[in-house]
Each structure stands twice: as structure tokens, then as C-alpha cells.
Amino acid sequence: MSAETPAAAPGQFTRRRLQFRAWRGARPFWAGLFVMLGGFPIMYFPYAHLQIGHLTVAMATTAGAGSLIIGVLLIVLGISLWFQKHVRVFAGVAAILLALVSIPVSNFGGFVIGFLLSMVGGAMGIAWTPGPGAKAEESGRYGVPAPRGAEPVDAPMDLSGTSPANEVNGRHSAG
């Protein structure tokens, strides 16, 4: 092998992994995952029958339906954080509120596990902001490429003191 030998084309696995990495980076992926993982213990523990030796422990509460609804809503909010990133603030606030409601309704929020995961995921969803790569993804939406040479919306300001309002016939006027 020499230095001039071309590199091998990436395989199917590498290409898919890089595609997933790009998809994950353009949305609040970890926030959605934490919210979904928080919904499972909240939904599961009220219906679980734990076996300790010959002793069966039932965690059933009178609010079993409430726990099921809270858990399903948290899972739906986690999925919406993944696929509808523009509703991230609403989904984050709703996840935090549902996590707080799960404390009295669902065995202390799924034995605090679901509560903590949902709180952290909701806070991450609220705090997430699109990175620089997300702007390029949005500009090519619906298969329409962005115009060549188009200036981004949040372009840096010119702080040199000259602006079109201060220019008169190519001369700079004071103030």
C-alpha cells in the first residue's frame, strides 16, 4: 500500500451510522430519549407484580389509569421531541409538568426513577437550541435548494461604523 492508494469507500454500516449521527445532531435527541425512558417506569410500576421468593408484591394503586396516561403522554412527548423539534419548548414544559404530577399519582413518579428522567429530559428539551448545521438542513427543506450566495438571517453585524445610511456618494459622513 502506498500513500497514493485511494481510501476504501465506507461500508453500509459506516454510512448508516454517519446518517444517524447527523440526524441525531439536528434535534434534541437525548432530551427525547430521557423523556421516553422516564415514561416507562411511571407506566409500568402500578401494574407490576414483583416476586420476592414466594411473596408477591403488587404495586397497584387506585390511580393506575392516571399512571398509564402519564406514561403514554411522556412517551409521545419524547417522540415529538425527536420528530417535531419546533415544539421542543412545549414538549419540555409538558414533560416537566407530567413528571411533577406523577409524584402523587404514580408511586412517587415510578419510584423517583421516571420522575428524574422525565425532569432532566424536559429541561434538556427546553434548553436545546439548533446548532449551525440545522440552519443548512432547514434551508434545503422540501427538496428546494437554498439560493446560492444567500446571506444567513443571523449574519454578523458590521461594527466598523459605516452603514448605507452614513454613506453619501461614496463618502462617509460623521454621525
Automatic annotation (TrEMBL):
InterPro entries: DUF6114. Residues 134-175 are annotated as: Disordered. The keyword Amino-acid biosynthesis does not apply. The chain crosses the membrane at residues 25-45, 57-82, 89-105. Pfam families: DUF6114. It comes from the Bacteria. The keyword Transmembrane applies. Keywords: Membrane, Transmembrane, Transmembrane helix. This is Integral membrane protein. It comes from Streptomyces seoulensis.
